[in-house]
């Protein structure tokens, strides 16, 4: 009994010693290198704890997060992984909303305690939509085994499957899309086995065979009309090829493509000669928030695959009358990227109608494999186009989605290793500029080294 009491006393004293202040023997002028890189990022006030790890080797380390009277101290051992308790994190975010957190990292290295230069984490007032939807698939080009479409709670680390391909013969599934961030109204495509488009409206599920004699292919890239009555799609004759010696490993290109609109109530497809001309490749349609304009990408038709690297898409628009399903008679070119030897893909209008976010690359439309692909913004009131410099990197930035309040974007980037796409979130300020993005937080700081694809904001979860 005496031995047990001594052991307990020794443990208590040890814990008390660990919890006390440390004597800093060296103050560094450099900020710590941490993963994920959360130094000086801007985050929403409802995000899950930003667990991180110190890249430098150490015996033990501490992180002090504070804003005003609220303070949180986290300790770690040799793994240098800081796991932030949810309750303390929420208190900090409430205190820092519209302000920032001060973060100081201290480490015991070479028998002395050092303190890195402090950094801040800005906390915006505007919350982000609570859920993300994304496809998970290992990187590859032709073969796959497991894949699925999942939803992730941004306020914690909960992830649920919407559908996994083990339920459908291990087939391919893609192009998931939601009407106005509503998880009860969505669609996605099934490829290979059970090939179809699944249209989901609450408890109603429709299986659609969307190939017709008048269209080039089954329906491909979708965009919901805000009313939910229509969905704009591209129809594409798509091919894939591989480079023997090029930093872009794979090319995906169209030999023909058009844009159509599907009527979900009448089960009819409508289009216009302006959206389906033989002399142009039209693709990536997207409706404006008021539903009266259809934006799309258009390129001069080329001989494919011979001229694959000469195909350059401009950003265009045409009016649309949802009452009559009629299109305007004139196509407006909003950004003629081809004049500067660039190409537009993935146009998406902010829900408030002020900005249009798109991806710009050197050629083609499959920018998710183009190393030079970056995010650009157009101010729709002035038609001024500019890069989102704070969000871009030296590697691929491509697919993106707006949150419902037009203050947050999520986008896929290959900046970490050039292979996987991983979701980054960025704040968009009132001037349409991006702040430094942050990697979607995970409970396990090593998650991304083990294990992503297109990501879409949702207002709430989908229950099935």
From TrEMBL:
Signal peptide: none annotated. Pfam families: PD40. InterPro entries: 6-blade_b-propeller_TolB-like, WD40. SUPFAM superfamilies: DPP6 N-terminal domain-like. Belongs to the TolB family. This is Translocation protein TolB. It comes from Parabacteroides distasonis.
């Amino acid at each position: 009994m005496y031995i047990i009491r001594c052991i307990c006393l020794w443990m208590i004293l040890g814990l008390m010693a660990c919890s006390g202040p440390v004597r800093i023997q060296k103050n560094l002028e450099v900020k710590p290198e941490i993963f994920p890189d959360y130094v000086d990022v801007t985050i929403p006030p409802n995000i899950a704890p930003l667990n991180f790890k110190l890249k430098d080797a150490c015996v033990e380390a501490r992180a002090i997060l504070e804003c005003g009277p609220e303070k949180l101290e986290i300790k770690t051992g040799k793994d240098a992984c800081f796991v932030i308790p949810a309750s303390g994190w929420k208190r900090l975010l409430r205190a820092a909303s519209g302000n920032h957190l001060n973060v100081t990292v201290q480490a015991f290295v070479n028998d002395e305690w050092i303190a890195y230069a402090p950094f801040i984490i800005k906390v915006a007032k505007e919350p982000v939509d609570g859920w993300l939807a994304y496809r998970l698939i290992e990187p590859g080009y032709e073969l796959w085994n497991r894949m699925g479409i999942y939803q992730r709670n941004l306020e914690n680390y909960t992830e649920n499957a919407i559908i996994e391909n083990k339920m459908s013969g291990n087939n391919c599934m893609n192009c998931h899309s939601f009407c106005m961030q509503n998880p009860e109204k969505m669609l996605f495509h099934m490829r290979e086995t059970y090939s179809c488009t699944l249209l989901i409206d609450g408890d109603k599920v429709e299986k659609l065979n969307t190939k017709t004699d008048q269209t080039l292919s089954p329906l491909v890239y979708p965009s919901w009309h805000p009313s939910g009555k229509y969905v704009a799609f591209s129809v594409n004759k798509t091919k894939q090829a591989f480079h023997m010696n090029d930093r872009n490993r794979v090319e995906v290109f169209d030999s023909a493509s058009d844009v159509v609109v599907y009527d979900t109530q009448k089960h009819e497809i409508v289009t216009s000669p302006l959206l389906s001309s033989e002399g142009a490749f039209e693709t990536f349609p997207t409706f404006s928030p008021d539903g009266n304009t259809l934006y799309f990408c258009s390129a001069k038709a080329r001989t494919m695959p011979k001229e694959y690297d000469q195909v350059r898409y401009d950003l265009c628009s045409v009016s649309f009358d949802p009452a009559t399903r009629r299109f305007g008679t004139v196509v407006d070119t909003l950004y003629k990227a081809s004049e500067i030897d660039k190409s537009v893909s993935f146009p998406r209008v902010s829900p408030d109608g002020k900005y249009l976010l798109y991806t710009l690359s050197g050629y083609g439309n499959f920018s998710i494999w183009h190393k030079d692909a970056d995010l650009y913004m157009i101010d729709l009131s002035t038609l001024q186009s500019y890069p989102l410099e704070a969000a871009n990197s030296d590697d691929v930035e491509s697919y993106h989605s707006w949150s419902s309040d037009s203050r947050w974007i999520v986008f896929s980037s290959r900046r970490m290793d050039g292979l996987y796409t991983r979701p980054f979130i960025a704040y968009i300020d009132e001037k349409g500029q991006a702040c430094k993005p942050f990697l979607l937080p995970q409970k396990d700081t090593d998650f991304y080294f083990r294990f992503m694809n297109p990501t879409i904001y949702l207002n709430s979860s989908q229950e099935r």
